[in-house]
Amino acid sequence: MGRVKERAEGSFASRRNARHVAKLAGKSGEPLSPDDWEAYFRVGAQPSSRIVKRIFRVLPSDPRCGFCGAPFTGMGGALVRPFGFRPSRKNPNLCATCIESSPPGGATWESGILFADLRGFTTLSETLSPVQSSAMLRRFYGQATRVLFPEALIDKLIGDEVMALYIPVFMRPGTVAVSDDDRRFAANMMVRHARELLREVGYGTPSGPEVQLGIGLDFGEVFLGNVGGEHAHDFTAVGDVVNTAARLQSQAAGGEIVLSARLGAHVDGSLGEVEHLTIKGKAEPVRAYRLTWA
Question: Which of 81, 168, 206, 245 has a 20 to 30 A CA-CA distance from 61?
Fold first, then answer.
């Protein structure tokens, strides 16, 4: 019953957002273009009228959505929850209306991508029961959420792999055009999170890592939005940056972080020597840096 109610509320929020963006774009019954959908980030996801902004501001209580300001708890949370303003499953510091219920479609935005993969999990699973394998994955997912929230959106949990998005417009509410300072903020956060995640699974501890973990990072333009068909879509990112981050992750040994040189250009401090990696699907070697948990 709860899932049915959640789907109904999400559908209501999605239709409301789509109507609002269509109105801003001056379209009625026409498909929204990427330029129109971009209005969702710039205006549509934020309460547009002064009355709604004022209501959200005075409604108790914290915590709130870091993007639109909707309250999650107390009387205020109870009032707005039926309209889809509940914590997103991808980041509890943002609301489902701003993420899952955003209009279908998407636009090109600069974002960071993180892939973290358990090395040798398939082989290890042969020695474990299904219950033990499931417990190991749950523990890894819990470690990932503790490290990556609230700055990142956990896009997908894919078996023994985690994919996370670092979107400046969500990391720094009010961002319209991504600046060099936004890129630097996101890049340093990504490297910090990657190292923290390696420490979280045990690298650098006296007992050593409980699992072998490799991480790949990249940053650049992606197609971001609710991608898919009418009945099966998901808020995600697609494009070369996503593919490159996944391929860089495959180049990382246990305890290593492999990040692209285009991400490294925004990271403070020295990253060591540039490597030229031959990656499947790439005509030219990819310039990258290789870091460890330390």
Answer: 168
- Burial, 239: exposed, middle or buried (Cβ in 10 Å; 0-12, 13-18, 19+)? middle
Question: Are 101 and 130 spatial neighbours (Cβ–Cβ below 8 Å)?
Answer: no
Contact of 172 with 180, CB cutoff 8 Å = no
- Please work out, in degrees rounded to the nearest 5, the angle formed at the alpha carbon of residue 31 by the alpha carbons of 30 and 33: 125
Q: What is the DSSP letter of 150?
A: T
CB 21 within 8 A of CB 34: no
Phi and psi at residue 102, in whole multiples of 5°?
A: -65, 155
**Paired sense of beta strands 256-260 and 212-228, if any:** parallel
CB 25 within 8 A of CB 105: no
Domain ranges of the chain: 2-102, 106-292
pLDDT score recorded for residue 180: 92
pTM here? 0.77
Distance CA 17, CA 97 (A): 8
Is residue 287 within 8 A of residue 275, CB to CB? The reply is yes
Q: How many other CB atoms are there within 10 angstroms of residue 161's CB atom?
A: 16
Average pLDDT, the chain: 77
Closest CA to 118 of 204, 198, 226, 237: 198
pLDDT grade, residue 2 (50/70/90)? Answer: very low
Amino acid at 170: F
Candidate ranges 99-108, 120-129, 269-278; pick with highest mean pLDDT:
269-278
CATH class, domain 106-292, is alpha beta
Pairwise CA distance, residues 246 & 241, whole Å = 9
Is the previous residue joined to 150 through a cis bond, with omega within 30 degrees of 0? Answer: yes
| pLDDT of amino acid 267 | 96
Cβ pair 9, 83 in contact under 8 A: yes
Which of 33, 170, 36 lies closest to 99 in space, CA to CA? 170
